[in-house]
Write the structure tokens for this entry.
Amino acid sequence: MRGFVTCVRGVAILTGAVAMSSWGPSLVSSSTSPASASTSASTGRDCPAYAPSAGMFTGGHGDQLVAAPSGAQVCGYSNGMPLKGRPARGVELGVGPAEALVSILDEAPPAGKELSTCKYKASSVVVLFNYPRHADVDVAVMDLGCPSSRPSSAVVFFGRDSHAIDPGLDSTLVADAGSYGVPRPPVTPDVFGETAAQATKTASAHGFALAFGGEEVDRLYPPGTVLLQFPPAGMGDIGNQVDVILSAPISPPCTPADLDLSYEGYQGAAGSYAASFLVRNVSASSCRLAGPMKLTGTEKSGHPVTGTAELTAPVGSVLSAGATPWLAGSSPPVGDVFGTLAVSSPDYCPGHTVVPALWRFSVGGGTLNVANSLLGKAFPTCGGALSAFGTFSID
């Protein structure tokens, strides 16, 4: 899936990956072997009547997530009220996806920065984790409104804990919560626990295409394994496409030597021109984009001729190793994970157009340069004005 913003069934998302290492004490207080298949969930509770508001969530039936849930239920809300026509018990996830989700949340960083710089929107989802020999736990997912230069974000609450999750996971949970309204057939196949290649074959055998929906660090499952899917297995679908979230490896920060920057051309965008760029990891090992990123237009000598656009990657964005190049406008193989960024400048600027010779991308303590040309066309700026167009995304 490509473009300035990736979409999952009309839900705008910026896919990404959760942080790469544990952030203090683990949320998972017991160990378990991963489920081998997406077996049926053991449920029995109705969804909460109303979505919890900010600061009001107390953890429902239990305060701490533990491993080995018997299943999970995803309950959707709009403006605090249940989604229209939603089943009383929401949408049920099997044992495998429930275990994977607990493990993903185990890696999520504390939400201090998000809580201090972003505004609450609403609780969009409550996930009910069910346990055979432990108090059940409710986890509230709250969307946040963040500054335009930062990726959209969401926070999960359980007990007194709050943790940041990336937009890809948030959007998948929101989409799963609303999947009950899609008629059947066709019935979405179960690809949980399969590799991207295996899942592609399984989906194709059922008449579905497979699309990459993001990555999450999950210590239970090998890298490249399907952790979550939209629509969930057994649900209906419009468009015959399964979007999957894959397990990401624990990775060191990317350095400029690991990366390749390519200019993908520009197009008109509501009174502006917007140019897009791809960031690929060409090293032999996966790496994680960390810290702020900057893009500046320069002369061949390196002298700046434009302003600088600053962007921030989603939390713990992991780029797959040895990503192969592909033609502009085509889709990369499922499982190739790369970064997308876009910048804009006003499109009407008579007599003041500045056309950089190069683009300088600053990341990981160093820089990359790429020519401002695709098929002989260069991105023009208005007097050197340059700003981020949307946010940096992982696709």
Notes: Helices lie at 95-106, 112-117, 167-177, 196-205. The first strand starts at residue 6 and ends at 8.
